[in-house]
Structure formats: structure tokens, C-alpha cells
Amino acid sequence: MRADLRKRPMRLGPEARRARGRLPARPGGRTNRPGSSAVRAGRVVRVGRRQDAGTILVLTLGYVLIALMLAIVVTDVSTVYLARRSLASAADGAALAAAQSVDEMAIYTSTGNLQQLPLAEVAATVAQYQSDADPSGRMMLTAQLLDPTTVRVTGTRTVDLPVVTILGIGPVTVTASADAQSLVRLPAP
Predict the structure, then answer these.
(1) Cα separations in angstroms, 160 against 37, 76, 79
(2) Nearest residue to 157 via CA among 95, 92, 106, 85
(3) CA trace torsion 67, 71, 74, 78 (10° rounding)
(4) Which range, 3-7, 29-33, 98-102, 169-173, has the best average confidence (pLDDT)?
(5) What are the structural domain ranges in the chain?
(6) Residues 155 and 90 sit within 8 Å (Cβ to Cβ)
(7) Mind listing the pLDDT tens digit for each residue in 61-112?
(8) Is the Cβ–Cβ distance between 181 and 101 less than 8 Å?
């Protein structure tokens, strides 16, 4: 007797089968399930879900647009940052090279104690450093003596933005400067 009960499926009434979608809705009747069909005046009409159609597509397109704009901003900002960083490094190296370009002839031919180191050919040293550091010629380094022992090197570089150039936004010019000083230490008495 028990084996017989397990094999036979339970029979549902017509209203329960309509609620589960196994029986079509009555003509002119409504169903409670979203997305189900109802027959009205000889036509099949979809009930529910109509007002939500396409909202996921709009949300997805919005999120893709936001992610694309973030990628553009990150790409262009990182390009400018890296160009500024390399320019600052080159200006610092050129300033140190210029501060170390001491006029040895003036030191060896002087007859008294030197209070400051004479710097020689600062502009030539910076130009040589620039050609060694950036053979492409994209950066421009200029040197000036602030006082007889201090050199200031200022660098400029024009950076083309990789993505925003398509929109007509022009290149950005970055600048960096560095100072270096050569000191004379008097011998201890």
C-alpha cells in the first residue's frame, strides 16, 4: 500500500494548476504571476514585467561608461605624472653634474685659500647631461648660477595625452627644477 502512494503523483485542482502555470488562464481573467499571459478579447496580452523591460541594459551601459571615463582619466593622469617624475629626476641629475663641474685649473693655480669652488662650463655640462639622459630631445634643460656655488636647473617637457587628444584637448607642459650647491670645507686646524 505504501509503495502505491509513492508512485502516484498528487492531483491538483484547476485553480492550483493555473497558479503554477500548468493550465492556461481563463479568457478575460488575470493571473498573479509577472510575465504570464492572459487572453483578453481574443488577444494574448503579457501581464507584468513590461515596465521593467530594459532597465538592466541602461544600468549596464551607465556602469560601462563610468568605467571607461575612469580608465581615460587614470591613463592620462599617470602619463603626466610619469613625465613630471622623469623630468624632475633629469633636472636633479643635471644640477648635481653642474655643481660638480669644478674649474680645476682655477683651483690649482690659486695662491690663497678658496672660500668657494669656481664652477666652470655649467651650461655645457647640463647640455651634455640632457643629451645623455634624453636622446629623443623631448625635454629641455636650462641652467643658471644663483650664486658662485649654487646651480639651478629648470626642465620643461610637453606631454601628449594618449586618450584625450582625440577629444581635442591639447598637450600639457610640465616643468621641474632642482638646485645643487658645491661647498668648500675648510680643513680642520
Answers:
(1) 59, 9, 9
(2) 85
(3) 170
(4) 169-173
(5) 11-46, 55-181
(6) yes
(7) 999 999 999 998 899 999 999 999 999 999 999 999 988 887 777 767 777 7
(8) no
Between CA 124 and CA 106 the distance in angstroms is 18
Q: Whole-prediction pTM value? A: 0.61
Q: What angle do the packed helices 55-99 and 122-133 form, to 10 degrees?
A: 140
- Taken as a whole, the chain contains a residue count of 189
Please enumerate in sequence order all residues whose Cβ is within 8 A of that of 122, keeping only pairs 6 or more positions apart, or say none. 98, 101, 143, 145, 151
Q: What φ, ψ does residue 186 adopt, rounded to 5°?
A: -75, 145
